[in-house]
Amino acid sequence: MELPKKTLILFALGSLIITGACRKLLPLAPKDEEVLAGTIPGLTPAQEHEHLVADANFGQVFSKADGLGPIYVQTSCANCHVGNGKGHPSTTITRFANLNGGVIDYLISKGGPQLQNRSIDNYPVELLPAEANVITKRIAPAVMGLGFIAAMSDQSILDNADPNDTNGDGISGRCNYVDPTSFFIPQNIHQPNSGKYIGRFGKKAEKVTIQDQVVFALKQDIGITSDFDTDDLYNYASGIYTGDNAPDPEVSASFVNSLVFYMRTLKAPPRRNEEDADVKAGQSLFYQVGCTNCHAPTFTTDKSDIDALSYKTFHPFSDFLLHDMGSGLDDGYPEGGANSYEWRTPPLWGVGLAKDSQGGQMFLLHDGRAHSFEEAIMMHGGEAASRRDLFSALNDSQKKQVIKFLESL
């Protein structure tokens, strides 16, 4: 039956009104510079596809049937790295050790170096052993742009090292030379030193490669074994080699390498409002205060097996070196060649978007204790104390300009 023309007009108007109302309720898609997800420019179609497959692996939620646990912290990579950004105190990890007479024991025989505070059904959660007298908290780092960091040469890091402060600027950054993992394969970018290699990933630069970090996190955070580390976790209080009864390794080398590829091909964090007058003024003050003595702005990658990463200039605002940050940030927990009061300069790129992945509240520094840029700056001690004091001497307007610059990163 044909509807009257008047009825059709009223129906059309009603549809337009409903559509318009729905558009008001639905949020607009964020701009590319407002999100951390996305690939580096220049990938081939095959590499784009590989990245998408790897993205699904990064977000996979593991179950008991998949080999989760039996003790664990989280059930997926994405749980800690929401939107590829910084972690939240709710997903904090705990590391522990015994320090006696200057000798560190990571208590491997007691479940160290990391506490797994959750467990599968009918299996007891892990508790801190009585011997643990050093306990430190860590929030997860952002994972975007890691491919650029992985593709630069050791020499790029060494060029900024000045362990004896020979230039007299009060900054004495040094490399953390660590023992390589059993599955580490040196590349042309690596320069060994007495069998050790320069760490560039992790809070204290304790990991040489992204692969090192992935294998460690799969096991220590999720309780997932791989071809690179086949020994499963278990609660030592429950008996040796008790576990989830899932066959080990629980994921293959190709799964691990997929996660590595995903992180290598995530885009560098985008800048925003670069032409804003206050942002420009804040950047000048950031340099003037001397923040770039540690937060070095620019590096260039070496030749990479991924063409899109070869000979690319990037801006992480980090020198990837260890620095004495003073007693206030001393967590008592040395790693590799890093002392307990030393920390790798964290890259600042993406920090302006940090709170978006942290529930709207900013949590900065290694354990999330600082809730604003200014609070984080004022907690800088040791080598950074002089730069902190120079920032503190700025007037309120200038401080706000520095903050505006940081928000643009």
Secondary-structure blueprint of this entry?
Elements: H1 5-25, H2 45-59, E1 71-72, H3 77-80, E2 93-100, E3 103-105, E4 114-115, E5 118-119, E6 134-138, H4 146-151, H5 154-158, E7 177-178, E8 197-198, H6 210-222, H7 253-264, H8 277-289, E9 299-300, E10 313-314, E11 322-324, E12 342-344, H9 373-378, H10 385-392, H11 396-408
Antiparallel strand pairs: 1-5, 2-3, 2-4, 2-6, 7-8, 9-10, 11-12
Helix pairs in contact: 2-7, 6-7, 8-11
Q: Helices and strands, in N-to-C order? A: HHEHEEEEEHHEEHHHEEEEHHH
Based on Cα principal axes, name the global outline.
globular
- Helix amount, in percent? 25-40%
SS-based structural class?
alpha+beta
Would you write up a description of this structure?
The protein has 409 residues and is of the alpha+beta class. The protein contains eleven helices and twelve strands. Strands 2, 3, 4 and 6 form a four-stranded antiparallel β-sheet that branches. A two-stranded antiparallel ribbon has the order 1-5. A two-stranded antiparallel ribbon has the order 7-8. Strand 2 and strand 3 (103-105) form a beta hairpin. Helix 8 packs across helix 11 (396-408). The protein is globular, with a radius of gyration of 24 Å. The chain starts with a helix and ends with a helix. Residues 3-13 have low confidence and may be disordered.
